[in-house]
Each structure stands twice: as C-alpha cells, then as structure tokens.
Amino acid sequence: MEKFTTHTGVGVPLRRGNVDTDQIIPAVYLKRVTRTGFEDGLFAAWRNDPDFVLNNAAYSSGSVLVAGPDFGTGSSREHAVWALQNYGFKVVLSSRFADIFRGNSGKAGLVAGQIDEKVVERLWVYLEDNPGGQITVDLESKTVTTPGGEVEDSFDIDDYTRWRLLEGLDDIGITLGHEADIASYESGRPSWKPVTQHA
Amino acid sequence: MGKTLAEKVWDEHVVRSTPGEPDLLYIDLHLIHEVTSPQAFDGLRLAGRQVRRPDLTLATEDHNVPTIDWDKPIADPVSKTQVDTLRRNAEEFGVRLHPLGDVEQGIVHVVGPQLGLTQPGMTIVCGDSHTSTHGAFGSIAFGIGTSEVEHVLATQTLPQAKPKTMAVTVNGSLPAGVTSKDLILYLIAQTGTGGGQGFIVEYRGQAIEELSMEGRMTVCNMSIEWGAKAGLIAPDQTTFDYIEGKPEAPKGADWDAAVAHWKTLVTDADAHFDKEIVIEAADVTPFVTWGTNPGQGVPLGANVPSPEDFEEATDKVATEKALEYMGLQAGTPMREIKVDTVFVGSCTNGRIEDLRLAAEIIKGHKVADGTRFLVVPGSVRVRNQAIEEGLDKVFVEAGAEWRGAGCSMCLGMNPDTLAPQERSASTSNRNFEGRQGKGGRTHLVSVPVATATAVRGTLSSPADLVPATV
Ligand code: SF4
Predict the structure, then answer these.
(1) What pLDDT, in 10s, does the model give residues B142-167?
(2) Closest C-alpha among B297, B279, B280 to residue B288
(3) How much is the pTM?
(4) Residue A51 contacts by C-beta under 8 Å, 6 or more apart in sequence?
(5) Do A35 and B193 touch (CB under 8 A)?
C-alpha cells in the first residue's frame, strides 16, 4: 500500500445524505474478479442525470469527495471503496460514515475523514462558488484546507488507521507479525468447536 | 461488575490486546461466496500466502446463481466467471465448497445454521452484511469487506475495535399473526436506520425468548439495517434443541461439554449496557415499508405518509424523494397499493418455517391476476424439505413460481429482477433504490403479508383474505 501523507486535489460537492453503497456502485457492477475497473459503476444511476455533479467538467477530475451525513450505509461491499479509488478519489469527507465503509476505506488506502456538518456545508459552498477548486487534506496534521484559506479545519480519523495509512502498512503483514500469539490461542481452543473438514 | 453476552463472547476470542490498537480477534467460522471473495484469493496469490485454516472455512454459491435451469451452464458470462473463479480458488486453496447442484448449496446464512456449523459463543464472519443472522445463536457475527476476507483467510483473525453494547428488550408476547419480521421492521422504523450504529445489540425479553430459531434469525438478520455492528440473542433450550443432531453439531461427550459452556453465555444480572431500548410486543402490528430505506415503514393499516408529517427538513426531503421514486401519493392507504411481484425468500425469510407459513396461507387460494409470486427457498435442503412436505405442490397449484435455491430477487444479481417501475412486496431486507433491479420499487414485508398480497394483488394481511374453501 502506498504511503499517504498529504493530498491536494479537486473537491467534489456531493450534496446528498444517506448515500448507500447501492448508490455508490449498484450490484450489477460487482461481477468482476479483479480489483480494478469499477469506476464505470460509480454512482451509475446518478451519472445518467446530466445535472449530476460528476457530469460537470469542472468537477469530473475530482479526487476529494465531500458528501452529506451517513455516507456508505448499506452493504459491506468493498467495491464501493474500489469504485471511488478507481475513479480517482483519494479522500472522502463526511460528517458521518457507515462503520463497514469506514473500515473498508482504511484497509484499501482511501482516507475517510470525518468533519463537522458545518464544515461540510462550508466546503460545499466554497466548491460551488469555485467549481474545480482544490482541497488539501493533510493526514499528518488531520486538517482540510482550501488554497485561499476560505476553509481551514480539522478532520477525525482513528489513530490506528491514520498510522497505517501514513506508514503505508499492509494489515495482513502486521497481523502475521503476531503469529506466535495466534498459534498459542489456537492450541487452547476447545476441541468441540465445529470444523468444516474432518481428517 | 458482570459482563454482557457480547462481552463474554468477545473476550473469549481475543488473541492479542494492546492499548491504542484494535483487539486481534480469533475467527471460529469464515463463510465465503462467489461475489466478495475473488479479489481476496487474488490478494493471497499475489502475496504468496495460504489459507491458514481451511477447516474453519466454508464456501457456497448463492448471490448470482440462477434459480431456474441450474443444471445448465450459467447464461450470464460475468456471473459464470465469478462462480468458476470461486470453484478454482476453493480447489487451489483446499476450501470446502457447496456448488450449484449440491444438496448443501444455498444462501450462506441459511447453510451455516442448517449444517449445525453455527453454534453459540462463536465469532463468525462473511463478506456479506447479513452475517448478523448467525447472532441468533448467541454468536458475534458480522459482515466484512473483501480485504478483511483476505485477512481472515491468511490469519484466521481480524483486528477489531470493541463495539459498544446495547440491549433491546421486547416485553410481552407478539400478537397473533404478527411475526418477528414485523417486529424488526417496527423497531427500525422507531429508531431510524442509524439507531444501532456502533453497537452490538442483544435482543432479549419475553417476545424474543418465545421466537423459534428461525424467527430469531430474521430479527438478527436485519440488525444491520438499523446500523448495528451485530445482533445477538442469548442461547437457550430452543437454541440447543435446534442444533442437536445437525450434521456438524458436537456429538457425545463433546455435546455435553459444549452445552455446559453455552449455558454460561448469558448477560450477567449486574452487567452494564451502553444503551437500552424497551419496546412492548403488544404495540407491534403487521408492518410494511413505503420508502427506500428499511426505516421508512408504517403499519399495514396506515396510509402513505406525507413529507409534511416530518419535522426535520432532511426527513421531509428524504420522504419526498422516496415517494417520487416509489411512485406513491401521500395519504394513499397502504392496503390499496397494487403490487406486480411478490417475493418470498432471502436469508431473512427463506427458511422452512417461512415456506410452511406461506403454504398454509395460500392453500386453496390463487395468485391474483397480473401478479407474479416467486417462492425461492434459501437452500437446497430447505427446498427438498418443502418438497417432502408437499409445499411445492401447494405453491404451484396456487399459481406461484417454485424456484431453486439462492439469493435471487433479494439483490437482483441473478436473472430474477424487477423491471423499471415494477412494484414488489418482498420478504427480503433491503428496499434501497434499484436493489431488486434498476428502477424497481420494493415494499419490505413479512411472509404472511407477502402471501396475502400475492392472493389479493394489493398489500394485504391474511385477515383480508376470504377463507379458502378446501
Ligand atoms: S439473500 Fe440477500 S441479504 Fe441475504 S445473503 Fe443473499 S443477497 Fe445478501
């Protein structure tokens, strides 16, 4: 996984709350067996609408999504994170994320930063007044800023995820470092626990 | 101070706990299906890693498999690729797989319990959010993403921050004709789709204790629809009786040891929950959704709400949008809403008791003209049992379509989908826009409501039916 320290990119104001994973990527797009190529399904239903924000050339190269509350509710599909990443998003900002979505983001290297609802509103206003405007997301200092300092605020992300993203650490590698603990736990498991294969 | 059930199960599975880091939890059972696993196996291959415990892993095909002509090659090329990929991966990594055509094939959350693999006090994960279903046995069970699937495959563990705990107590007995599905739809409508966020919820109280295991699974299944991390119910005699004798249940001395341990899996009297909700079972009536999230529900006897009924501006907008998508007029009695397709199935309501109930209600009736009634068993085992009991004949005689096992119209990944603007009454768990097919309109309902609706063609309960003459 690549290290994430700071990112500056075009901000996309997604003025919607409760964006569930079926809106981020409808189920029909999930039928791939690779980790790439999901950008075509991102917000598929909304992209048919010419007024949808990503259909506006000023925002179409966006990499920082600013969304309403309860982003990523619904299914556990990690494809929602991949679709955002495949499209080019590095960061999603919202006042509230669904738990599974937030977890999936951290693991795949997408920064899900939680900001105050009022900051969301100010970013929306800024981005609507300045289509194509950029946002800088600094993971070190946990801040979001606009170039002219119109918005300058902090975001929340849990320390562990932040550390991993900053270090670019692979989760599985970290856990396998504790192999001895796992083996010792296994040796103490009751023998009546179910198994799917019998010797 | 005592511990809650969830805390007991959690603590029993901590491999490693360090301040400032999530706990490393051991996973007792990892369920796998064709849609969320390919990239995980791909990741293992890329890193040169193995599956640590194939003997704690089980795979089946459910999400996109067809429910007719399942003996023929899968027509949709992408679905076929996913299924073929799962089969290759299972073989390469030594994972037990129940493929299409196998007697144990079916929806993961139906297959685990019916094999007896789902037992109290376990940690169970699957790349599917409705894994919470298994909590009905007193396990901590939750959905994970594909990276986590890869993590569990490689390490049989998962780093997890300990969630808060909540108790939902349901006092008294559910009224006659009211099911556990109505109960959970009612609860979600009360609390909203975010009400459970961050919590492992323990459902308790008389109404919960009186539920069968299948009814309990329906409740736990939909925990995720009000945002909970997981839902669980303390194991009791009902649980033990259900498990005993199942193919993978403990036997002999193992059984005694297991039950002795399971009996300790209850919340201590002096345990503390971070939050508590109490509801009265007597308040629950047949419940149906009118909108595009599971919290947008009302009693069947009520009318379609109006945006004006809500105080918050966001709720007004959400209601307006939902009504537009659903093609509904505020004030219309729910009972007058005409339905094109009725779906009985899914991991919420696709088990044998559900089929028995549907058959009992539709016996002697006919599916209404212009209405399609799809009955999809959750697994091949459920299907075979239904055939043994003659339920299939009842359905076919009534004019229903009797299908093969799988997720089917629950999420519209296989050919069973709604057409744009087509309206369904569905026993599944999600009514999101496009969930059952692009532009499709879903009303979430219980099995009795679904079946009565199939007969009358409009949202109905069995009480609305003219008694059948059989
Ligand atoms: S039936 Fe529906 S909710 Fe259940 S596992 Fe299948 S797709 Fe998921």
Answers:
(1) 999 888 999 999 999 999 999 999 99
(2) B297
(3) 0.85
(4) none
(5) no
Using alpha carbons, select from A89, A151, A91, A157 the residue that is nearest to residue A124: A151
* pLDDT reported for residue B470: 52
CA geometry: angle B302, B307, B310, nearest 5 deg: 85
Residue of A28, A31, A35 lying closest to B82 (CB–CB): A31
Eight-class DSSP state of B447: H
B327-341 pLDDT, tens digit per residue, is 999 999 999 999 999
pLDDT in tens, B356-369: 999 999 999 999 99
Report the chain A residue with the minimal C-alpha distance to residue B156. Answer: A182
Structure tokens at B394: 């009842």
Mean pLDDT, to the nearest integer, of A30-37?
80
Mean of per-residue pLDDT scores for chain B? 95
DSSP class per residue in B106-172: B-HHHHHHHHT---TT-EEEESSGGGGGGGGGT-EEEE--HHHHHHHHHHSEEEEPPPEEEEEEEES
Which has the minimum average pLDDT: A27-41, A156-170, A172-186, B267-281? A27-41
Largest CA distance in chain B: 68
User: What's the rounded Cα separation, in Å, for the pair B102 and B99?
Assistant: 6
> How close B13 gets to chain A, by Cα (Å)?
9
Residues pairing with B379 in the sheet: B106
- Picking from B144, B132, B139, B160, the residue whose alpha carbon sits closest to that of residue B32 is B144
DSSP symbols for B222-247: GGGGGT-SEEE----HHHHHHHTTST
| Residues in a beta bridge with B30 | B57, B125
Contact yes or no for A181 and B15 at CB 8 A: yes
A18 within 8 A of A179, measured Cβ to Cβ: no
β-bridge mates for residue A138, sequence order: A6, A143
pLDDT at residue A41, as a whole number: 95
- Rounded Cα distance between B97 and B205, Å, is 38
Mutation for A interface: B155, B188, B408, most A CBs within 10 A: B155
Residue B100: both structure tokens together: 């299409």
Q: Distance between CA B93 and CA B152 in Å, rounded?
A: 14
- CA of B346 from ligand 1 middle (Å) equals 6
Q: Look up the ipTM and state it.
A: 0.93
Residues ≥6 apart with Cβ < 8 Å to B106: B60, B62, B98, B114, B377, B378, B379, B380, B381, B382, B405, B406
Burial readout B23-57 (b: 16 or more C-beta within 10 A, e: otherwise): bbbbbbbbbbbbbbbbbbbbbbeeeebebbbbbbb
pLDDT for A76 beyond 80 = no
Q: Which atom of ligand 1 is nearest to the CA of B130?
A: 3
What pLDDT is stored for residue B469 in this prediction?
60
